[in-house]
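Sequence, please.
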């Protein structure tokens, strides 16, 4: 996304967005980082690698942002991906953002399946918290 945004700025592919749009995008980016950070702080098992951490007595985390959605770290990333092109005046950066969105949804699905199959109590958690990324949507 930064590469496309940089090329967009250099070659002038996109129009400049208004200040209110940029400020709204910045607010969404900050909210995304805050949500992802909250998830990281609340979940001591948070990891970039999908694995059951048996060496650390891995358990289901259902507090903090995990009360509302099962993957708040990814939801925070999703917010940042979608707002960054607006903040950088690079509408063309929505193409890699959309690609990242698709990858994020696939990863969320695969991770959720792994957790349901291998983490004790996770299936019951999915009954209490049905939303994966976006409350009320998915």
């Amino acid at each position: 996304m930064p590469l496309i945004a940089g090329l967009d700025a250099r070659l002038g592919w996109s129009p400049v967005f208004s200040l209110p749009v940029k400020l709204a995008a910045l607010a969404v980016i900050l909210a995304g980082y805050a949500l992802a950070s909250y998830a990281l702080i609340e979940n001591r098992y948070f990891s970039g690698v999908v694995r059951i951490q048996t060496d650390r007595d891995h358990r289901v985390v259902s507090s903090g942002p995990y009360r509302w959605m099962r993957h708040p770290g990814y939801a925070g990333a999703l917010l940042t991906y979608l707002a960054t092109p607006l903040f950088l005046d690079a509408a063309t950066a929505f193409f890699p953002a959309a690609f990242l969105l698709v990858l994020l949804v696939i990863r969320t699905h695969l991770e959720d399946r792994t957790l349901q199959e291998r983490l004790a109590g996770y299936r019951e958690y999915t009954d209490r918290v049905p939303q994966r990324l976006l409350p009320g949507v998915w």
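The mean pLDDT is 93.
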